[in-house]
Design a protein that fits this description.
With 179 residues, this protein is an alpha/beta fold. It has a single domain, classed as Rossmann fold (3-Layer(aba) Sandwich). It has six helices and seven strands; from the N terminus they run E-H-E-E-H-E-H-E-H-E-E-H-H. The protein is globular.
């Protein structure tokens, strides 16, 4: 028998929790069946990336004890992408899989913002869809939980490094003149 999958859930707000209930039941059943294990007291964390980035970073200190993080948020759902960015570029972790869920909001505009802020992040390796569509809302969270315990997790690749530049204002203006 393979080792149980180690799973953590991070959501951006307690207002997202009602959309998690069905998916969390799948995780509880999988835990009871010995298919997953969770970090005691750290199974689900509520932490907005906008307001609680240090809490998210502290949670990522447990990354060596995890295989999968299911990260979900609504509105401008930066949480999955920020976790991916911290893991890949700051902590150089290319093992842990991030599954992103966009939670349903009160308006079409909020729902679109949630989906785009996960799906349109350049260079991210957040898993945001399966053969049934994006991980969106209650149904998407439930499918994400099932995927987290599946055998089909992707291999994370080391991202290509991108240089950082520091320039004078005038230097940038000169660069534009020569292009």
């Amino acid at each position: 028998m393979k080792s149980p999958r180690r799973v953590m859930v991070i959501v951006g707000s307690d207002s997202d929790l009602p959309q998690c209930a069905r998916g969390l039941k799948h995780l509880i059943e999988a835990k009871t069946a010995g298919l997953i294990t969770t970090i005691k007291g750290k199974e689900i964390i509520t932490a907005s990336v906008h307001r609680h980035l240090l809490t998210v970073q502290r949670a990522l200190l447990l990354r060596n004890e995890l295989d999968v993080i299911i990260a979900g948020a609504g509105m401008a759902a930066h949480l999955p992408g920020m976790i991916d960015s911290i893991l890949r570029y700051e902590l150089e972790d290319y093992r842990l899989v991030i599954i992103g869920v966009a939670f349903s909001g009160k308006t079409k505009k909020a729902n679109l913002a949630a989906r785009l802020s996960i799906s349109q992040v350049p260079g991210t390796q957040v898993v945001f869809e399966d053969g049934h569509g994006f991980y969106f809302g209650e149904e998407g969270f439930s499918r994400a939980c099932k995927f987290a315990i599946s055998e089909n997790l992707p291999i994370i690749k080391k991202p290509d490094p991108r240089p950082t530049y520091s320039r004078e204002f005038a230097e940038v203006i000169e660069m534009q003149k020569t292009q």
